[in-house]
Amino acid sequence: MKTLIVGANGKIGKHLVRKIVENGQEARAMIRKEEQASYFEDLGAETVVVDLEDSVESIQKAVEGVDAVVFTAGSGPNTGKDKTILIDLDGAVKTVEAARAANVERFVLVSSFDTSREAIVEAPSSFSPYVAAKRYADVALRNSGLSYTIVHPGILTNDDATGKVSAAEKVQRGEVPREDVAEVLYQTLQTSSTIGKAFQVVSGDTPVKEAVESL
């Protein structure tokens, strides 16, 4: 299997690329800057330089020839509402369109923990645009006809991986290391029963592989 990781230079993306390569599979890291390439090439991954603000056609060139796409990109906490719309919503939607155009059916999307309408209303004003962007990216993927999975992680930390999580359609809000989220994404790619599902994930007591296979 060859997987395109969108947002590969992010913390979850870097963990995921490494896990894919270490497990003997092929990874293509989509990055924004040429100077980011050496990290991934040293791991043994392909790289492709594309900005999510570019056209669908540009993104499609990155998608061509892969078996799956994992979208881990995000605008980050220090950008304005404009970047939230352009990356977290429009970037995701364009990547979905690019996957469809390239006949790549498998698509895994990293979303926000809760993207319900209630979550948008209840979120602080500084955070509600992000939740709204993630909600409508989720909707676009659900309606795309692709073999999708939507992963809703809890509060992300840079703690060492525990290898254990709690994953279900609904779980109690909590924290989860980014490296454990990357392992969830890797196992999701290996598990066809996750297709057509969306689930929340936080730290827990169940080994990641077992937790994903039980969804």
Automatic annotation (TrEMBL):
<dbReference type="InterPro" id="IPR036291">
    <property type="entry name" value="NAD(P)-bd_dom_sf"/>
</dbReference>
<dbReference type="InterPro" id="IPR016040">
    <property type="entry name" value="NAD(P)-bd_dom"/>
</dbReference>
<feature type="domain" description="NAD(P)-binding">
    <location>
        <begin position="7"/>
        <end position="190"/>
    </location>
</feature>
<protein>
    <submittedName>
        <fullName>SDR family oxidoreductase</fullName>
    </submittedName>
</protein>
<dbReference type="Pfam" id="PF13460">
    <property type="entry name" value="NAD_binding_10"/>
</dbReference>
